[in-house]
Design goal:
The complex is a heterotrimer. Chain A has helices at residues 10-22, 28-34, 36-39, 75-85, 97-106, 121-126, 176-179, 186-193, 207-217, 227-240, 252-256, 267-276, 305-315, 318-328, 335-338, 343-346, 355-359, 366-370, 372-383, and strands spanning 63-68, 88-93, 113-114, 155-156, 159-160, 162-175, 201-203, 244-247, 262-266, 280-283, 289-297, 361-363. By secondary structure, chain A is α/β, with parallel strands linked by helices. Classes of the chains: A alpha/beta, B mainly alpha, C alpha+beta. At the A-B interface, helix 2, helix 5, strand 8 and helix 19 of A face helix 3, helix 10 and helix 11 of B.
Chain lengths: 384, 285, 377
């Protein structure tokens, strides 16, 4: 990697992105329904004894176990980490924060590093499942360099539990050939589903975003747990359900083949579809919606804590992080990393929407993760 | 002597008993205990003794209704397709072709049901069957993400489990019995009903039970081919354990599912037996 | 016995007929141009080794196999294309083929339940009881098939077949699975049944004794063809060919030079020069032929005893001696003739004497004993 410090050209970026897409049997949904996430050791893992071991200045052991989201890394970075440290990365992939939490709660996850989303961090702290971070062991984390909006959730009561990975939004992906133009409101999304877009709309199989955006439709907070407001959101969802194409977080295939015209969509998926099919656009709901930020954290009882710190530190190195961004297409909040990224990328309206559009968005609130009413509402919606 | 024998037998049975306890009873006991507990504030399990979870079961009524509708319908549909196939393989096919055709029935099983279900996503999706139907003038037919798609998926997925027990039962059928029936004045279709069908009932029963029980716990096919809109008890369980982490309620749902299965199996077995005993020309062995 | 059972048979009344019936299974010719009339009321046996076509003949009559060429007639009607379930014949299968999921009574009444229009339940029950009584199983109606012995199962199969009052009852090796003692009993019962029901019986068997003891007529088959048809006695006394002579009873078969023929008798010189007088084959003109003579038609005397004039005597040596209670079987080696078998009845006091292995004897061949065989085709 001779030129790893030089910014990468637009062509190179697109090439990287396409490479990612080809390998992208993305499937949060896929993983969600199979529960394969935990079982899926993507790299290494099976044959630790065969890995070359070298004398190290500091021995951190031969492995580190990372629990993360699908297609959320540049695997070449892990190879290089193994080269440098002697520890290889075993990856477990998950479909939702809830699922990740369920596995940690059940105990014996064996993970060293995981990537909770902002709203999940307080629950981990409350349940004493997360390790406070010793920042001296993560010199590459420079709090000054990060946009605090996307870094604050990692710190609770002055203690840093998690350092920022990437951020993004949950908006609307639309096929403009079919919708006749930009769809940038949840009003159009849910009303259209029952009208001109009948049987063409998808919502996530995920309570946070599906209920959240239904709340936003009614002008309520994305995070509301108010029974009155939830009741209205439920009414909307159940009313819309017969008209939906699917309730699924695996929306790319249906969008790409034209069966679905509209879907709730995460930043990276929106970007990926837009690159391949320019007619598929991505817009944020003008009434509001979700903005989110993922973090690196260490669970309590991590078996390879030294390696965990080493891996987090490595991944936060700006050059490494830039490669990560090029591979997965989600923005970072780190100025040092952004300085290494191509300008086209930084100006991309999907990855970096205008500040006004972001202003109406809300970060997910911790309460949504554990609120039993939202879970029950989702079950009623799905079984209706 | 007798003492030694008893001890030896006990010693020989111990591993089996331990396996039985460890693999079957222990998990079931855990689920049973959990089902009387509570959900802790942040999800997961909190110890307790309450019947609240059971009282809350009606909240998953729709899931049970969907499962208890599609599982029997799926079983019957699988049976209707599997029986002629098994009959053909066991009775009509020459031995040379038999092995090859049997392998063809098994081969799909070598691939994960997940992959095979995704294949149906493409077959039933907008560019698959509906496109062909549109070509012959049947516009805008919706197949994917409907209960019908789920039915297709489960019938397809569980077909081998239905075919094989029936095949084995029919393979054992003494074809001379059919000649005897014909000799005594029975036309072929009637000898099928009077001889072949009753004598293959053990296979039909085994296959139906296998498929039915597995369908009761199915969650993958409804999620993939139902587009998340067809919600089974299995899906409710996945969500309860992995999403809302309401383990106590999830356990209660699981216990209810097991009880419903036990009752259905008992009723079904008894019904088939009675059906067999009550008529003088139909029965099971 | 044969004479008496023939009495009720009217030769002109044909119940069924094979008319050039041929059956091919691929390249295999299972039945080759079979022509045969079955007389109403007779007991006819198809006899032959496995693969001779006897079962195929029976199955063509039952309707399980249609003839590839030729025709099958029942009551004068061509039934070649009539399926089994519409033919007025019933079969007792080799392994009985009883329905395992039915009781004895359900098995027996099965045929009656197939009648359309339906018979009343009481009529079925009544006829079933009668049929069960006929085969002496009146108490067994509610039993399950697997609870019965082999002989009882056989009788169930019989009852199940006769309850339909068929024109012809077909029996496919029905006694094959029974032990020897039971077989004898069953054979007698079958005969009694046939007489009381006055139904035509067609039996397939490879057991010549069974065929001989039960049949009015026997049809000997080989290689898909009919070799010879006749009463047991005809076949035993007048086998036309070595095949028949060999199959029906035991026969000594030796080569002979025919040097004279007159009014149905032939004079033949055996390989050792002995001249014997025997029955000729009508129309035969061969110089050399095979000659058959039954072991019990021959007798043995010690060589040192004087010979009687006019009885051919073949010098031989005893090689084996088998004591069989009512008779003794001797195997002998005669120079120039070959091996001979002689069955000597045991007589009080052993008038003809008994001969040890190794002793030199004369085998006596009375005039008019034995016959000239046709060449096997």
């Amino acid at each position: 990697m001779k030129n790893e410090n030089t910014p990468i050209s637009r062509e190179k970026f697109m090439e990287e992105l396409r490479r990612y897409q080809k390998g992208s049997v993305t499937r949060r949904h896929f993983l969600g329904v199979t529960g394969l996430g935990t079982a899926m050791a993507v790299m290494g893992g099976a044959l630790p004894g065969l890995m070359p071991t070298r004398a190290r200045a500091q021995d951190i052991g031969d492995r580190v176990v990372l629990a993360t989201w699908p297609n959320y890394h540049d695997t070449a970075n892990f190879d290089m980490f193994t080269e440098e440290s002697g520890a290889y990365t075993q990856i477990n992939v998950f479909g939702s924060n809830e699922e990740m939490l369920a596995k940690i709660q059940a105990g014996g996850s064996g993970w060293d590093v995981f990537v909770p989303t902002n709203y999940a961090v307080p629950t981990y702290v409350q349940a004493d499942l997360i390790e406070p971070l010793d920042l001296s062991r993560i010199p590459n984390f420079d709090a000054e360099a990060f946009d605090p909006r996307f870094a604050d959730a990692g710190t609770i009561d002055g203690i840093v539990y998690a350092v920022p990975k990437n951020w993004g939004t949950t908006g609307i992906a639309f096929n403009s050939d079919k919708t006749g133009g930009v769809v940038d409101s949840w009003k159009t999304f849910f009303d259209g589903a029952r009208d001109q877009f009948d049987n063409r709309v998808m919502v996530h199989d995920y309570q946070l975003t599906t209920i959240g955006n239904a709340l936003v439709y009614h002008g309520f907070s994305f995070n509301s747990v108010d029974p009155e407001e939830l009741a209205q959101a439920e009414k909307l969802l159940i009313d819309v359900k017969p008209h939906l194409y699917a309730i699924s977080s695996d929306y790319q295939p249906a969008m790409r083949n034209g069966d679905a015209w509209l879907t709730m969509c995460w930043t990276g998926d929106g970007k990926q579809m837009n690159v391949d099919m320019p007619e598929i656009g991505f817009a944020l709901g003008k009434e509001g919606g979700e903005i989110w930020s993922d973090y690196y954290a260490i669970p309590k009882g991590a078996p390879h804590k030294d390696a965990a710190y080493a891996l987090i530190n490595y991944l936060l190195e700006p050059e490494v992080n830039a490669r990560e961004v090029l591979a997965h297409g989600y923005p970072v909040a780190d100025r040092r990393t952004n300085a290494l990224l191509p300008e086209e990328l930084l100006n991309d309206p999907i990855l970096y929407p205008a500040a006004e559009a972001l202003d109406v968005l809300e970060f997910g609130a911790a309460v949504t993760l554990t609120d039993p009413n939202r879970a029950e509402l989702m079950a009623r919606f799905k079984s209706a | 002597m007798a003492m030694t024998q008893t001890r030896a037998r006990a010693l020989l049975l111990t591993p089996a008993a331990l396996w039985y306890a460890a693999l079957l009873l222990l998990p079931l006991a855990v689920v049973l205990i959990f089902s009387f507990g509570e959900r802790s504030a942040i999800g997961g399990y909190a110890p307790g003794f309450t019947l609240e979870q059971y009282a809350n079961l009606p909240a998953r009524f729709a899931a049970f209704r969907n499962t208890l509708t599609l599982a029997p319908v799926g079983t019957v549909a699988a049976l209707l397709i599997a029986y002629p196939l098994a009959y053909f393989l066991a009775i009509k096919v020459t031995p040379r072709w038999k092995t090859m055709l049997l392998v063809l029935v098994i081969v799909p099983f070598w691939t994960s049901i997940l992959i095979r279900s995704y294949a149906w996503v493409f077959l039933l999706g907008g560019h698959g069957l509906p496109a062909l139907l549109a070509a012959v003038g049947l516009e805008d037919i919706r197949l994917l993400n409907t209960p019908f798609a789920v039915l297709v998926g489960i019938v397809y997925g569980y077909l081998p489990l239905m075919v094989f027990p029936i095949y084995v039962a029919l393979e054992k059928l003494d074809l001379r019995l059919l000649e005897a029936a014909a000799d005594l004045g029975t036309p072929p279709w009637r000898s099928f009903l009077q001889i072949t069908l009753p004598l293959s009932m053990p296979g039909v029963l085994t296959g139906s039970m296998l498929v039915f029980i597995l369908l009761m716990g199915e969650f993958l096919i409804p999620a993939i081919l139902g587009g998340g809109k067809v919600f089974f008890v299995g899906n409710a369980l996945v969500d309860l354990f992995l999403q809302s982490r309401n383990w106590a309620f999830g356990s209660a749902v699981a216990v209810a599912l097991v009880i419903i299965m036990l009752i259905t199996v008992a009723v079904y077995t008894r019904a088939v037996k009675r059906f067999g005993a009550g008529r003088d020309d139909v029965g099971i062995m | 016995m044969t004479e008496t059972s023939c009495a009720h048979v009217s030769a002109k009344d044909t119940v069924a007929e094979f008319a050039g019936a041929t059956k091919r299974f691929g390249a295999i010719l299972a039945a080759d141009r079979i022509d045969l009339s079955i007389r109403r009321g007779e007991f006819l046996s198809f006899l032959g080794p496995s693969g001779c076509g006897k079962t195929t003949a029976l199955r063509m009559l039952a309707g399980f196999d249609g003839p590839s060429e030729g025709a099958i007639l029942i009551d004068g009607q061509d039934v070649s294309a009539v399926p089994a379930h519409m033919r007025p014949v019933n079969m007792v299968f080799q392994h009985y083929a009883l329905f395992p999921h039915m009781t004895v009574a359900q098995n027996v009444g099965y045929g009656l339940r197939q009648r359309r229009p339906r018979l009343s339940k009481s009529e079925i029950a009544q006829k079933t009881d009668k049929a069960l009584a006929t085969v002496r199983l009146a108490e067994f109606g509610t039993r399950r098939i697997w609870e019965l012995s082999g002989g009882q199962q056989q009788r169930v199969a019989l009852a199940r077949a006769i309850i339909n009052e068929p024109q012809i009852l077909l029996l496919d090796e029905p006694m094959a699975a029974l032990d020897a003692k039971l077989r004898g009993e069953m054979q007698r019962e079958l005969l009694e049944l046939q007489r009381s029901l006055n139904i035509t019986f067609v039996l397939v068997t490879h057991d010549q004794e069974e065929a001989l003891s039960m049949s009015d007529r026997i049809c000997i088959m080989g290689k898909g063809r009919i070799i010879q048809v006749g009463s047991p006695q005809e076949l035993y006394d007048r086998p036309r060919s070595r095949y028949v002579a060999d199959f029906v009873g035991k026969a000594n078969i030796v080569a002979g030079q025919i040097d004279g023929r007159q009014s149905g008798m032939a004079q033949a010189i055996l390989g050792n020069g002995t001249t014997v007088i025997l029955r000729d084959l009508p129309g035969d003109s061969r110089q050399t032929a095979e000659i058959a003579v039954r072991p019990e038609a021959l007798s043995i005397v010690a060589q040192d005893l004087p010979l009687t004039e006019g009885i051919a005597a073949i010098p031989a040596r005893v090689t084996h001696r088998t004591f069989l209670g009512d008779r003794i079987e001797y195997l002998l080696m005669a120079d120039g003739v070959g091996q001979l078998q002689v069955n000597a009845p045991r007589q009080a006091g052993g008038a003809l004497g008994e001969h040890k292995v190794g002793s030199l004897v004369h085998v006596l061949w009375p005039e008019g004993t034995g016959l000239v065989l046709a060449d096997d085709t």
